[in-house]
Amino acid sequence: MRALELFSGVGGWRCALGGRGQVLAAYDVNEAANDTYALNHGDRPRPRELAAVPAQALAAHGADTWLMSPPCQPFCRMGNHQGLEDPRSRAFRHLMDVFREAPPQQVVLENVVGFLGSDAHALFLKCIRAHGMQQLDLEACPSRFGLPNQRPRVYVVASRQPLRPLPRPDLPPRPLSEFLDADPEPELFLSPATFERHWRGMDLVVPEDRRSTCFIGGYGRRFVGSGSFLKTRDGARRFSPTEIARLHGLPDGFHFPPELPLEVRYRLLGNGLSIPVAAWALDHLRDR
Ligand SMILES: C[S@@+](CC[C@H](N)C(=O)[O-])C[C@H]1O[C@@H](n2cnc3c(N)ncnc32)[C@H](O)[C@@H]1O
């Protein structure tokens, strides 16, 4: 696969792609994401507003595959449900225009489950089918891939070649203890007053548990519905960004620029992919 990674974030698609191919170019407007991407993958994504990148510029990369994770807020359970009307869908709409002009051989899109049945999903299917592509809508969660984390997502896989249907894995989640830092930073611990104020709404887990809730971008700031908190002998604490990266299946050496604040790290991870699930979605594409 010769891929374009669109809305590249910290490069989850690139990790999932592994030896299946190479990323010819990545695009993202967020500088913190691009710094992290460059640190981990060597190449720096183009810091371009995708709504303004002309079809010829994208076609010039000579890619046969698009891997993309458009912003999910227009389709989120807690979002405004404006779909294509949301200004954050402008780049996706533009990419669908580009697709009509210069379609790749195959495309894989990741988003929240609310994307299914949305107007954006309908537009995507229309473009795919107009080019005679086959398509599968896959719903999957890392908790079925051996990871103790809930992150249900949809992957729309489309190709001009026949697709390869695969069973969804059903591996038991490993205990959280396998994903924890040996020496957690003191800043992760909640003060007794903070814990007392919020514990009733928090999702609390212990290291022996085999589950955690979905970590979202606001994890550093919010206590309810933003991800699980860990109860330890030394008190309750947030999961560290490194622990969340492990729960997302990012490679062991994955790291952030040292100056990047904790909140920003959580925000980037909250946008991210579960790597084994994304890799499974890619496995539905046959070798070409
Ligand atoms: C859902 S996240 C994708 C995360 C990515 N898959 C990863 O592994 O980290 C969406 C990304 O798209 C970027 N983005 C949003 N709107 C954009 C636009 N109009 N042009 C370029 N990048 C955009 C955001 O900065 C964000 O990093």
Characterise this structure.
- By secondary structure, the chain is an alpha/beta fold.
- It has two domains: 2-169 and 273-283, Vaccinia Virus protein VP39 (Rossmann fold, 3-Layer(aba) Sandwich), CATH 3.40.50; 176-268, DNA Methylase, Chain A, domain 2 (Alpha-Beta Complex).
- It is built from nine helices and nine strands.
- The strands form two sheets. It has a six-stranded mixed sheet, with helices on both faces.
- Strand 1, helix 1 and strand 2 (22-27) form a beta-alpha-beta unit.
- The chain is globular, with a radius of gyration of 19 Å.
- It starts with a strand and ends in a 5-residue tail after the last helix.
- The model has no long low-confidence stretch (mean pLDDT 95).
- S-adenosylmethionine (SAM) binds next to helix 1.
Largest sheet: 6 strands, mixed
By CATH reckoning, the class of the largest domain would read Alpha Beta
Which sequence of strands runs across the widest sheet?
2-1-3-4-6-5
Q: What is the CATH third-level topology name of the largest domain?
A: Rossmann fold
Shape: globular
Percent of residues in beta strands: 15-25%
Number of helices: 9
**What is the name of the CATH superfamily of the largest domain?**
Vaccinia Virus protein VP39
Query: Structural class, please?
Result: alpha/beta
Q: Which stretches of 5+ consecutive residues score pLDDT under 50?
A: none
Annotated CATH architecture of the largest domain: 3-Layer(aba) Sandwich
Radius of gyration: 19 Å
Number of structural domains: 2
Bound ions, cofactors and other small molecules, one mention each: S-adenosylmethionine
Helix content: 25-40%
Task: State the distance separating the first and last CA atoms.
Answer: 8 Å
The number of E-state strands comes to: 9
Q: Sketch the topology as an H/E string, one letter per element.
A: EHEHHEHEHEEHEEEHHH
